Amino acid sequence: MKNGRLRKVVFPVAGLGTRFLPATKVVAKEMLPVLDRPLIQYAVDEAVDAGADTLIFVTNRYKHAIADYFDKAYELESKLAQAGKEELLALVQGTLPRNVRCVFVTQPEALGLGHAVLCAKQVAGDEPFGVILADDLIVNGAPGSGKAGALRQMAEVAAREDAGVLAVEEVPRADTRKYGIVDAESISARSARIRMVVEKPAPEVAPSNLAIVGRYVLPPRIFPLLEQTRPGAGGEIQLTDAIEALLHEMPVLAYCFEGTRFDCGNKLGLVKATLHMALQDPQIGGETAKLVRGQGA
Ligand code: G1P
Question: Which terminus of the chain, N or C, has less C-beta within 10 A?
Answer without folding.
Answer: C
